[in-house]
C-alpha cells in the first residue's frame, strides 16, 4: 500500500487529474448503464404483463369442455385447483419432488382478481424447450396469477382434468372424479424476453462502447484543463527562478482569477516584499555599521599611533584611559548591533512587571544623574507585558538614557493600562524633537544636528532599538508633541499580559 501511495504521489498533477477523471467517469457511466438498463427493462415489462393478461383472458374463454384448450396457442400456463394440484398446464412440467410451489388463490378472492408474482421454479419444473428454458437449473420467473371467472362443477372439473394439456400425448384417459365445485387459479408466464433483450442492448451499447470512449474523452479534457489551470503556476515558478538568481525586485504574476493560485501568487509577492525590505535593511545596516565603526576606530588608531612616534613625551596613562573609553564605546556599539539583529529571535515567552522594572530604573537614574529630577506616575495596578525581561528592560533603559541625555532638569515617566494595552510615556524638558524628525528619529544611525558632539551624541541606535523591541512585542513606539509644549514626548504602547 505504501509503495502504491509513493508511486501515486510521484505522478504529475496533470496525470493524476486525468486518471481521477477517467475513474470517476467510469463509475458514473457504469451506474448510468445500470440505471438505463433497468429503466429499459421496466419500460418493456408492462407490455409483457399486458400480453400475459390477454393470454389469461383467452385461456379462460377457451374452456369449452368439449375441445378443452385446443384453441389456446399462447404463453405457458398452469391451472391450479384449490388443493394445489394442477388441473392442466402447458410449457411447465409438474414437479413431484416439490408439489405445490404454485399456490392457489383463496376461494373468497373476487372473480377476475390478478397480480404479478415472482416464483422460484425448481430445476425440473419447466419444459426445457419453452420460453423459460434459458438455464438448466432452477430460476425465478414472473407469473400473472388470476382468479378464474366462473365456479366449475364436478363434471366440468372432471372433463378439465381429463385433458392435462393441449398436446394429444398428454391427454389422460380419465379425469379426476369427486372434485367439489370450485374456481381454478390461472398462472400465465410473463414472457420477459423482449425486456431482457432491450436491457442487454442498452448495457452493451453503453457499457462496452460509450463508457470507454466517454471516459477517455473526459480524461483528455481533464488533462488539457489541468494544464491550462497550471500555466500560472509555471509562470510563478519561472519568475521565482529568476528571483533566486538575485533579481529581488521582481514579483510573480498574479492571475486575474480569485482562486488558490491567485492567493498563492499574492502571498508570494508579500513574502518577496518582506524579503526585499529585509535585504535592504541588512545592506543598510552593514553599510551604516561600517561607517559608524570607521570613526572611532580611526580615532583610536590615531590616539595610539601618535604617541608611538614620540614615546618619551606621551602621557601613557591618559592615552590608555582614552583608548579604553573608545574601546568601551565600540563594545556598546557592537552590543547594540547584535541585539538589534537578534531582537525578533529573542522575544521568547513569559511576562515582565513594568511597574517594578520602572521603579528600579528610576532609582538607578536618580543615582547616576543627580543633577536631574525623576518623577513617575506609577500609582495604578501592576502592569505586565509579554516578553523577556532583558528586552523590556533594554527598551525602558534606552528611553530613560535618551531623556537623561537631553533633559534640562526633569524627566517624567507615566505608566497606565486600559483595554488590554499598557501605555508607557517618557517626557523630558530638553530641546525636543522637531515635527519633521519625529518618525525619522527611530531609524538606525539617525542623529539630529543638535547631538553630534561626542559628549552627548550616541551611535543613533538607542531609539531604533526601542521601536524594534516594541514591534517585536506586538506594540508601537512613537514621538508626539509634549503636553507641556517643551521637550520630547515618547509613547510606547504594548499589549498587556497575564502574570
Question: Would you give an account of this structure?
Answer:
It is a single chain. The chain is α+β, with helices and mostly antiparallel strands and 499 residues long. It contains ten helices and twelve strands. It has helices at 2-10, 13-61, 154-162, 193-229, 231-244, 260-309, 316-342, 354-368, 389-406, 462-472, and strands at residues 77-80, 86-90, 114-121, 139-147, 185-189, 351-353, 373-377, 384-386, 410-418, 421-428, 476-480, 489-495. Strand 1 and strand 2 (86-90) form a beta hairpin. Helix 2 (13-61) runs antiparallel to helix 4 (193-229), helix 6 runs antiparallel to helix 7 and helix 8 runs parallel beside helix 9 (389-406). It is rod-shaped. Keywords: ATP-binding, Cell membrane, Kinase, Membrane, Nucleotide-binding, Phosphoprotein, Transferase, Transmembrane, Transmembrane helix, Two-component regulatory system. Pfam families: HAMP, HATPase_c, HisKA.
Amino acid at each position: 500500500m505504501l509503495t502504491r501511495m509513493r508511486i501515486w504521489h510521484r505522478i504529475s498533477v496533470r496525470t493524476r487529474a486525468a486518471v481521477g477523471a477517467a475513474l470517476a467517469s467510469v463509475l458514473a457511466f457504469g451506474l448510468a448503464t445500470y440505471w438505463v438498463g433497468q429503466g429499459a427493462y421496466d419500460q418493456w415489462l408492462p407490455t409483457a404483463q399486458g400480453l400475459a393478461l390477454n393470454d389469461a383472458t383467452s385461456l379462460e374463454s377457451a374452456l369449452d369442455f368439449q375441445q378443452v384448450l385446443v384453441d389456446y396457442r399462447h404463453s405457458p400456463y398452469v391451472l391450479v385447483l384449490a388443493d394445489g394440484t394442477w388441473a392442466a398446464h402447458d410449457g411447465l412440467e409438474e414437479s413431484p419432488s416439490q408439489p405445490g410451489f404454485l399456490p392457489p388463490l383463496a376461494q373468497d378472492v373476487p372473480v377476475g382478481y390478478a397480480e404479478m408474482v415472482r416464483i422460484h421454479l425448481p430445476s425440473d419444473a419447466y419444459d426445457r424447450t419453452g420460453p423459460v428454458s434459458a438455464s438448466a437449473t432452477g430460476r425465478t420467473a414472473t407469473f400473472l396469477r388470476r382468479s378464474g371467472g366462473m365456479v366449475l362443477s364436478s363434471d366440468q372439473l372432471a372433463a378439465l382434468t381429463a385433458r392435462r394439456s393441449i398436446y394429444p400425448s398428454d391427454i389422460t384417459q380419465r379425469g379426476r372424479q369427486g372434485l367439489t365445485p370450485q374456481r381454478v387459479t390461472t398462472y400465465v408466464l410473463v414472457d420477459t424476453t423482449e425486456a431482457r433483450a432491450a436491457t442487454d442492448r442498452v448495457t452493451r451499447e453503453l457499457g462496452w462502447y460509450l463508457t470507454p470512449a466517454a471516459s477517455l474523452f473526459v480524461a483528455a479534457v481533464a488533462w488539457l484543463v489541468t494544464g491550462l489551470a497550471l500555466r500560472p503556476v509555471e509562470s510563478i515558478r519561472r519568475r521565482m527562478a529568476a528571483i533566486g538568481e538575485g533579481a529581488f525586485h521582481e514579483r510573480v504574476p498574479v492571475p486575474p482569477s480569485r482562486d488558490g493560485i491567485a492567493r498563492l501568487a499574492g502571498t508570494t509577492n508579500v513574502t518577496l516584499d518582506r524579503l526585499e525590505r529585509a535585504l535592504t535593511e541588512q545592506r543598510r545596516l552593514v553599510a551604516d555599521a561600517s561607517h559608524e565603526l570607521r570613526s572611532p576606530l580611526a580615532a583610536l588608531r590615531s590616539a595610539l599611533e601618535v604617541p608611538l612616534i614620540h614615546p618619551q613625551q606621551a602621557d601613557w596613562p591618559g592615552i590608555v584611559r582614552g583608548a579604553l573609553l573608545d574601546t568601551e564605546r565600540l563594545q556598546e556599539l557592537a552590543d547594540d548591533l547584535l541585539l538589534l539583529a537578534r531582537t525578533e529571535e529573542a522575544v521568547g515567552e513569559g511576562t515582565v512587571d513594568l511597574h517594578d522594572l520602572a521603579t528600579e530604573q528610576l532609582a538607578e537614574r536618580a543615582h547616576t544623574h543627580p543633577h536631574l529630577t525623576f518623577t513617575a506616575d506609577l500609582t495604578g495596578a501592576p502592569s505586565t507585558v509579554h516578553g523577556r525581561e532583558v528586552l523590556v528592560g533594554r527598551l525602558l533603559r534606552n528611553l530613560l538614557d535618551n531623556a537623561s541625555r537631553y533633559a534640562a532638569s526633569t524627566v517624567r515617566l507615566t505608566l497606565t493600562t486600559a483595554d488590554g494595552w499598557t501605555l508607557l510615556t517618557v517626557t523630558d524638558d530638553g530641546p525636543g524633537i522637531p515635527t519633521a524628525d519625529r518618525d525619522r528619529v527611530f531609524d538606525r544611525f539617525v542623529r539630529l544636528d543638535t547631538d553630534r558632539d561626542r559628549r552627548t551624541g550616541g551611535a543613533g541606535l538607542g531609539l531604533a532599538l526601542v521601536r524594534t523591541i516594541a514591534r517585536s512585542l506586538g506594540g508601537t513606539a512613537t514621538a508626539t508633541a509634549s503636553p507641556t509644549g517643551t521637550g520630547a514626548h515618547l509613547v510606547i504602547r504594548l499589549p498587556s499580559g497575564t502574570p
